[in-house]
Fold these 3 entries.
Entry 1:
Amino acid sequence: MNKQLLSNFANRIKYLRKQYGYTQDDLSEISNIARSTLGNIETASNDITLSKVYNLAKAFNLSLSEFLNF
């Protein structure tokens, strides 16, 4: 697990979530990711699966390449 990458990814999610005006509960519901899992992702505590990355990109209406541009 690459902690720096996870930290950068966590910051990207937090930034986008705030830009879109989503709470963690909102994003959890939209992305179909458990609220506790989302919290762990945002604190870089857990690695993330590609399917969750895809669900988050869709929640922000971004392509994977746009979403991962950080």
Note: The mean pLDDT is 95.
Entry 2:
Amino acid sequence: IAPLVFEAAAAGDAVAREIVDRQANEIVAWASAAVRRARLSRLDPDVVLAGGVFRTEDPGFYARIEEGVRVAAPRARLVRLRVPPVVGAALIGLDRLLGGTPSDIEARLRAELTDDRLTGH
């Protein structure tokens, strides 16, 4: 349902925009708490945005998140994860199995699992 809400917000629906803004505020609260607990406020941490809700291209959504996160960590970098998190787990597993040596399997896995059809981009 999230894509429909983002679409309605982009079309000017006030209720949908409020839902999107609330979601952004929740993400800011979570990310800010994580930054503070990890004592990264004075550093330049990467704040990785991962999950289906980040498939949206809504500029207001990302601006609200960035503005909020910068209150907790002014030098933070927001990074949108472009592949499913399982890709990282699979690559770590391959590294362990292969002793960190790149292989044709790893190259194929990277190519297949980072395909635009799977990432929504």
Note: Confidence is low (pLDDT under 50) at residues 116-121.
Entry 3:
Amino acid sequence: MTTVRAIAGSEVRRQLTSPASWLIVGLFALAAGGAFVTTLNAFLDQSGQALSSPPPQPVNVNQLLIRPFLVQIGLAALLLLPLITAPAYTRERGVINRGVVLAT
């Protein structure tokens, strides 16, 4: 267990000190902000229409705001998370290919 903790600790330190990781996290934050603004604008438009004329169904915040936002963020995460984890994977594959075996 201590070996796993040591390996995980070194990987976390590498990720926190890597400028590329911070750039990717910043891109994710920009994508999340853009997705929220887009979804919020669509929600406000639909809410305004519902106020001008009575809607057949009540306005559902979960369906109109939260669900589309989480879907967009999930897609952004699916695209950006492999970019964050790729360096750790390549380091691991390089260690295995050179014949170095990590202590178990």
Note: The helical segments are 2-17, 19-52, 61-97.
